[in-house]
Write a structure and sequence with these properties.
With about 350 residues, the protein is of the alpha/beta class. It has a single domain (about 40-350), classed as TIM Barrel (Alpha-Beta Barrel). The chain contains 15 helices and twelve strands. It has helices at about 5-10, 15-20, 25, 50-55, 65-75, 100-105, 120-135, 150-160, 160-180, 200-215, 230-240, 260-270, 295-305, 315-330, 335-350; strands at about 40-45, 45-50, 80-85, 115, 140-150, 180-190, 190-195, 195-200, 220-225, 250-255, 275, 310. Strand 3 (about 80-85), helix 6 and strand 4 form a beta-alpha-beta unit. It is globular and about 60 Å long. It starts with a helix and ends with a helix. Bound molecules: 3-hydroxy-3-methylglutaryl-coenzyme A (HMG). 3-hydroxy-3-methylglutaryl-coenzyme A (HMG) binds near residues 53, 86, 123, 146 and 222.
């Protein structure tokens, strides 16, 4: 085990001390970014969840053509992994009802991975039908399954306890893998649960391990309520790393308390290399009352500028997409970076 992994396992905060540093020579000039060449950078994968997590909580149902345009625009702006929708029950989440139409109408860009959320065997069956109907141009590349760290949330979100959900997801994952479909996993409410309060991080650790053991290639740790801060996120990761390899974990931070960027950076410092985010900070879970959207993709990209990390996506192009979708939805844009860039563009137009 490398010293970095040992340090991270013992204490996430220690990993700050073992993060790659630029050479002292390059640090010596204050005007030169310490991490200015691509070769120095540590790649970070960004999973753009806007078309799914972002739109599932909108008050009105968004027409499929708008979702398609959003996905296409995101691909053009450089997003490399896009969660395009979900095959959940339309009775539970009507906003995701048109996902089959969306994924068969969107452009499938080379180099971009498209995933959809699946809650149960019925959802997987629907995905398999779709793939069978498009054998030469599969509209999606992988699925994501989801459970939670608490029974209360799992019951509210999927009508089963965590143990029951893991049993049913094991069947879904086995079948998907047999069909050659990669599976990502999510654990919701890793910090606090809207129904049962503070979460025991040992549950996060154990549920994550079960998802990885059943065959998920990666598990995304969801601060669904957005109540975490860098300290609680570090503590949660410290416990979760106890049974799970850091390279198979991702951070999924809602921005309810404005901690999304700070929590994402804390996760990177702790060794996580995959972050979920949502264009314009759209979204929220319909079964997490009071929680706002994910951390905005644009805020993450801005935070990573001049850092040791690199992430795909053209910030200016994503800001354009973000302004477009928030206007389409008739809602405020939650990204501070978008607000600042829009104001700067306005000032520049006037001078
Ligand atoms: C899991 C169920 C289906 C159980 O719901 P249930 O009511 O227990 O299911 P059921 O098996 O009794 O079926 C009820 C009806 O739904 C149908 N049905 C059943 N399954 C499907 C399906 N897949 N697709 C389409 N239809 C389906 C089924 O055919 C039946 O139709 P009926 O006979 O009444 O006409 C339901 O609870 C559900 O769909 N929940 C999903 C809720 C959801 O999507 N939440 C948001 C996503 S998770 C999230 O946002 C968190 C995350 C991932 O972002 C990370 C984080 O931030 O924490």
């Amino acid at each position: 085990m490398s010293p970095g992994v040992v340090a991270r396992t013992l204490c996430p905060a220690l990993s700050m001390l073992v993060s790659p540093r630029p050479s002292l020579a390059r640090l010596s000039h204050p005007l030169v970014s310490a991490y200015s060449t691509a070769a120095d950078k540590i790649p970070v994968k960004i999973v753009e969840v806007g078309p799914r997590d972002g739109l599932q909580n909108e008050k009105t149902v968004i027409p499929p053509r708008v979702k398609v345009e959003l996905i296409n625009r995101l691909g053009l702006a450089g997003s490399k992994v896009i969660e395009a929708g979900s095959f959940v029950s339309p009775k539970w989440v009507p906003q995701m009802a048109g996902t089959a139409e969306v994924v068969t109408s969107m452009d499938k860009r080379p180099g971009v991975t498209y995933q959809v959320l699946v809650p149960n065997e019925k959802g997987l069956e629907n995905v398999l039908h779709l793939l069978a109907a498009h054998p030469f141009k599969p509209p999606i590349d992988e699925i994501a399954v989801f459970t939670a760290a608490t029974d209360a949330f799992s019951l509210a979100n999927t009508n089963v306890t965590v143990a029951e959900s893991l049993k049913r997801l094991a069947r879904v994952v086995r079948r998907a893998l047999e069909k050659g479909i990669r599976v990502r996993g999510y654990v919701s409410v890793v910090i606090t649960c809207p129904y049962s309060g503070k979460v025991d991080y040992k549950n996060v650790r154990d549920v994550t391990k079960e998802l990885l053991d059943m065959g998920c290639y990666e598990v995304s740790l969801g601060d669904t309520t957005g109540t975490g801060n860098p300290t609680s996120v570090g503590d949660m990761l410290g416990v979760t790393f106890g049974a799970n390899p850091v390279e198979r974990l991702a951070g999924h931070f809602h921005d309810t308390f404005g901690m999304g960027v700070a929590n994402s950076m804390a996760a990177l410092s702790a060794g996580i290399r995959t972050l979920d985010s949502s264009i314009g900070g759209l979204g929220g879970c319909p079964y997490s009352p009071g929680a706002t959207g994910n951390v905005a993709t644009e805020d993450i990209l801005y935070a990573l500028q001049d850092s040791p990390y690199s992430a795909p996506g053209d910030l200016n192009a994503l800001v354009d997409v973000s302004i477009w979708i928030s206007e389409k939805l008739g809602r405020d844009n939650s990204s501070r970076v978008v607000k600042a860039i829009r104001a700067r563009r306005e000032r520049e137009r006037q001078t």
